[in-house]
């Protein structure tokens, strides 16, 4: 039962990681691509980690995975923010509809 | 024993509050060490405690967030409204899931219906940690990224109209800023002030 749960969760996580990768290719510019990367950072990794935790059961290893998840939820938006602020300050113009 | 004597000497002249936070930090780091190492032999436990203590001594000043005149009062990181933060987190997770599905829909849509835009909004919050929480929450939610935060003003890049409108509605303020303000609100006066804004 736990195995099935784990498979479902990891598959869902991989789905979001894949969509994030597709978005990275399809979206037009740096700013919008960061949004796609956010998909993998949040639900993609969280669901994959959650699936691994379910598979592992209540052990020290799954507790460590929880720590990894918490760290990612703190660190990933910080890194994304620094990247996008650097681009904005460097004067990169965001792509908008209409202007081409 | 030696170590604890040293601590008393170093922290001796300061307030008892700082000594308590030092102890708390050491214990938290020690617990983290034990979980990470998973070994219960005396050697590792002693090395772990020594490292935890040293790291706590070195990093303690970093956990005092300095006050900035234009961004509310500074506070110690120990002095956060942990309970209300814990209550805020499930709501944030739910928002992240909703936003993920929304962005997934946009990306997989063959017509790629995006309307990228920069939106600005002002929000006065009671402290630096509150500003950080809101900025991180915005970035964590796919579809919106905090570009800049200066003088209470947030500059956010949004992937679509819906994401932008959820933060900066045509009337009033977005739900996320309101909730973060509620989490960090102090005392009754601020809470009634919030209700007036809504």
Helix amount of chain A: over 70%
**In percent terms, what proportion of residues of chain A is strand?**
under 5%
What is the approximate shape of chain A? elongated
| Distance between the ends of chain A | 52 Å
Tell me the quaternary state: heterodimer
What would you report as the Rg of chain A, rounded to the nearest angstrom? 17 Å
Question: Major sheet of chain A, described briefly?
Answer: none
DSSP summary, beta strand count of chain B: 3
Any idea what the radius of gyration of chain B is?
22 Å
How are the strands of the biggest sheet of chain B laid out side by side? 1-3-2
Tell me, rounded to a whole number, the average pLDDT of chain B: 80
SS summary, helix count of chain B: 8
**Greatest interface and its residue counts?**
A-B, 35 and 31 residues
Unreliable residue runs of chain A? none
Number of strands of chain A: 0
Describe the SSE topology.
The complex is a heterodimer of chains A (100) and B (198).
Chain A: H1 2-26, H2 30-56, H3 60-89
Helix pairs in contact in A: 1-2, 2-3
Chain B: H1 2-11, H2 16-37, H3 42-59, H4 82-108, E1 117-122, H5 128-140, E2 144-150, E3 153-158, H6 161-167, H7 175-184, H8 187-197
Antiparallel strand pairs in B: 1-3, 2-3
Helix pairs in contact in B: 2-3, 4-7, 5-7
Describe the structure.
- The complex is a heterodimer of chains A (100) and B (198).
- Chain A has 3 helices and no strands.
- Chain A is an all-alpha fold and 100 residues long.
- The longest helix of chain A has 30 residues, at 60-89.
- The model of chain A has no long low-confidence stretch (mean pLDDT 90).
- The radius of gyration of chain B is 22 Å and the shape is elongated.
- A 3-stranded antiparallel β-sheet of chain B has the order 1-3-2.
- Chain B is 60% helix and 10% strand.
- Chain B is mostly helical.
- The longest helix of chain B is centred in the middle third of the chain and has 27 residues, at 82-108.
- Chain B has 8 helices and 3 strands.
- In chain B, helix 2 crosses helix 3 (42-59), helix 4 (82-108) runs antiparallel to helix 7 and helix 5 (128-140) packs antiparallel against helix 7.
- Classes of the chains: A mainly alpha (100), B mainly alpha (198).
- The A-B interface holds A 16, 19, 22-23, 26-29, 31-32, 34-36, 38-39, 42-43, 60, 63-64, 67, 73-74, 76-78, 80-81, 84-85, 88, 94-97 and B 32, 35-36, 38, 96-97, 100, 103-104, 107-108, 112, 114-118, 135-136, 139-143, 145-148, 155, 157, 159.
């Amino acid at each position: 039962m736990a195995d099935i749960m784990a498979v479902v969760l990891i598959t869902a996580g991989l789905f979001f990681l894949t969509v994030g990768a597709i978005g990275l290719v399809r979206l037009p510019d740096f700013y919008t691509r960061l949004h796609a990367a956010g998909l993998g950072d949040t639900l993609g990794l969280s669901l994959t980690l959650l699936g691994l935790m379910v598979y592992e059961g209540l052990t020290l290893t799954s507790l460590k995975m929880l720590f990894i998840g918490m760290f990612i939820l703190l660190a990933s938006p910080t890194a994304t923010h620094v990247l996008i602020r650097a681009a904005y300050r460097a004067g990169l113009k965001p792509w908008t509809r209409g202007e081409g | 024993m030696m170590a604890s004597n040293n601590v008393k000497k170093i922290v001796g002249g300061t307030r008892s509050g700082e000594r308590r936070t030092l102890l708390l930090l050491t214990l938290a780091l020690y617990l983290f060490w034990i979980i990470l190492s998973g070994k219960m032999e005396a050697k590792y436990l002693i090395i772990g405690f020594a490292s935890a203590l040293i790291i706590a001594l070195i990093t303690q000043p970093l956990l005092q967030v300095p006050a900035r005149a234009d961004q509310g009062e500074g506070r110690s990181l120990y002095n956060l409204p942990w309970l209300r933060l814990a209550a805020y987190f499930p709501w944030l997770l739910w928002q992240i899931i909703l936003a993920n599905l929304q962005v997934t829909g946009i990306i997989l849509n063959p017509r790629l219906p995006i309307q990228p835009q920069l939106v600005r909004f002002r929000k006065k919050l009671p402290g630096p940690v509150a500003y950080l929480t809101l900025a991180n929450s915005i970035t964590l939610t796919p579809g919106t990224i905090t570009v800049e935060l200066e003088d209470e003003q947030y500059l956010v890049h949004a992937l679509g109209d819906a994401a932008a409108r959820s933060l900066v509605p045509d009337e009033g303020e977005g739900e996320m800023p309101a909730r973060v303000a509620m989490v960090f609100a102090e005392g009754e006066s601020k809470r009634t002030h919030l209700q007036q804004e809504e």
